[in-house]
């Protein structure tokens, strides 16, 4: 249906010749309620147009006004409109395919097939004049460059089967602010928002996650299919004017401060004294038993170990309480700076870190 027939080409060129024979070329007006934002290559004739919400072609009668009327007659109040090749009209809320931005001048000399005096608003040869509806209902989310001590690093790739960041955390109704706060409370150095609502934290990037670009769609709409244009462009669940990543894409933030913020080591609990920070490993545990104490603090953990007749207590990874009667190798003292997480049960207390135990006995 989108392939040009010989008749169509004949009509197209008839339009060109007619236009050329008209001496006075008037620049076509931008329709009210719309702005002309771009001129894009559009390979619509090969089946992959930029906008795919609705499509209408009229080899002999197309004008900008007719395209506006067509887009307005659809059940969705589409956000973008495109006119290509002088006779093709399409509408959509996303740029499903995105080709080269060829500059507004590449769309400025062809007439609309339906009106030879309407020059410059109906695209060009394989070029589409792209319009955006001026409508406050369409909020285009913007990148939050930084939040407090967290610096934005841009858009990074993720994948469902191999996650870029270690843990997903609850961040309420997700915003960039709520996510970095949730990651900060647990002592992480990286935070990432994804798919509008997910909040991820980690201490390093995993699985080859790498910078993907910074385009949040302000210039070009929301891209979906073209991998070269698929950037972080989804509004946050908790604030639609902020960008919260995209599908399998993280807006990544890096903590630039020192941990733990506002938390300090509880020096002693019931006669048990803090003995510093010790290393731990998942494969060989420094303390023999993990105990579930619900809301972990230095007090709740020490009390739990004491009541079970252990002589050593250790706090790890913000939320783990470990007990034992000996410090088992390879566990050994390490820098206190490795115990860099606040307790889940009380953010003013230090609760070890990743593979790091705050030890009491
Ligand atoms: C990110 O993209 C790179 C390059 O395409 C790829 O090698 C890597 O596996 C991806 N990582 C994730 C976490 O998706
Ligand atoms: C939503 O985000 C914008 C941009 O970051 C910010 O200016 C605005 O205050 C936020 N709104 C609310 C209700 O937090
Ligand atoms: C985060 O910032 C630190 C310096 O503050 C830097 O060493 C580190 O490479 C950054 N992380 C990423 C993923 O860019």
UniProtKB/TrEMBL annotation:
InterPro entries: Kremen_rcpt, WSC_carb-bd. Its main location: membrane. It is a single-pass membrane protein. Residues 33-134, 149-256, 271-361 form the WSC domain. The keyword Metal-binding does not apply. PROSITE patterns: WSC. It is found in: Membrane. GO terms for cellular component: plasma membrane. Keywords: Glycoprotein, Membrane, Signal, Transmembrane, Transmembrane helix. Residues 1-19 form the signal peptide. PANTHER family: KREMEN PROTEIN, PROTEIN SLG1. This is WSC domain-containing protein.
């Amino acid at each position: 249906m989108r392939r040009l027939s010989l008749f169509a080409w004949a009509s197209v060129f008839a339009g060109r010749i007619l236009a050329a024979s008209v001496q006075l070329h008037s620049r076509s007006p931008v329709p009210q309620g719309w702005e002309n934002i771009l001129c894009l290559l559009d390979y619509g004739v090969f089946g992959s147009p930029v906008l795919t919400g609705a499509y209408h072609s009229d080899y002999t009668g197309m004008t900008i006004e007719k395209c506006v009327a067509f887009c307005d007659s659809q059940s969705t109040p589409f956000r973008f409109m495109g006119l290509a090749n002088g006779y093709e009209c399409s509408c959509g809320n996303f740029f499903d395919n995105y080709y080269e931005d060829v500059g507004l001048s590449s769309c400025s000399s062809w007439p609309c097939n339906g009106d030879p005096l309407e020059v410059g608003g109906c695209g060009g040869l394989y070029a589409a004049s792209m319009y955006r509806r001026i409508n406050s209902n369409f909020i285009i989310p913007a990148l939050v460059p930084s939040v407090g001590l967290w610096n934005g690093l841009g858009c990074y790739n993720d994948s469902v089967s191999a996650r870029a960041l270690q843990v997903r955390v609850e961040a309420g109704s997700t915003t960039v602010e709520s996510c970095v706060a949730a990651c900060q409370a647990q002592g992480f150095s990286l935070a990432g928002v994804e798919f509008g609502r997910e909040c991820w934290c980690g201490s390093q990037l995993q699985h080859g996650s790498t910078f993907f670009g910074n385009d949040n769609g302000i210039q070009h709409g929301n891209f979906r299919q073209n991998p070269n244009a698929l950037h972080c462009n989804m509004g946050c669940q908790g604030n639609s004017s902020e960008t919260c990543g995209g599908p399998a894409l993280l807006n990544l933030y890096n903590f630039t401060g020192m941990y733990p913020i506002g938390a300090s080591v509880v020096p002693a609990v019931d006669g048990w004294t803090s003995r510093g920070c010790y290393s731990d490993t998942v494969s060989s545990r420094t303390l023999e038993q993990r105990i579930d104490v619900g809301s972990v603090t230095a007090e709740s953990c020490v009390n739990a170990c004491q009541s079970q007749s252990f002589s050593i207590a250790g706090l790890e990874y913000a939320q783990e309480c470990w007990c034992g009667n000996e410090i088992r190798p390879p566990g050994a003292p390490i820098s206190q700076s490795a115990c860099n997480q606040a307790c889940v049960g009380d953010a003013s207390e230090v609760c070890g870190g990743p593979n790091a135990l705050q030890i009491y006995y």
